[in-house]
Amino acid sequence: MLGWFGIAENAAAGEADRLLARLAADLSAAGLRVAGAVQRDTERGGNCACDMDLIVLGEEDRPIRISQSLGSGSTGCRLDAGAFEMAVARIDARLAGAELLILPKFGRQEAQGRGYCPLIAQAISIGIPVLLHVSAKRRAAFTAFCGDMGEHLAADRLSEWCLEQTAGAL
Description:
By secondary structure, this protein is of the alpha/beta class. The protein has helices spanning 15-29, 81-93, 108-111, 117-125, 139-146, 158-165, and strands at residues 2-5, 34-42, 51-56, 64-65, 100-105, 130-133, 150-153.
């Protein structure tokens, strides 16, 4: 009940985020109770890194900026850990009654055992399927986290997998 997908390394920036956003909208429109979040990055141009916002599903009018502007040329981590943890808490508050949990990715925070890890574990423990993106860079950490529980999915099969996992929910 833990599905993950990757995309081609040469895919356009943000492609996995756009794919998950469309999927979450389509599944919700079909009547599935979907919890989680999708990420939206906004390019700032020039030498500036993008702004990163998390959109908690069901609270689309209240995006959470999870990036900090450190200035051009900076190389440090731009994640605003406090804002990210607030987003995780808001997702957790919407988990009750959900039939599916969609999360943007298994990233650096998750590779260190933080971030979405508690949500993933909680959802699986109560029988809620989880879907997320895992980049090639994070696959070893993801496997260390979930062992053989994760099911690799082709990007064009995500909707089908979600509907199979939630059969009878609609």
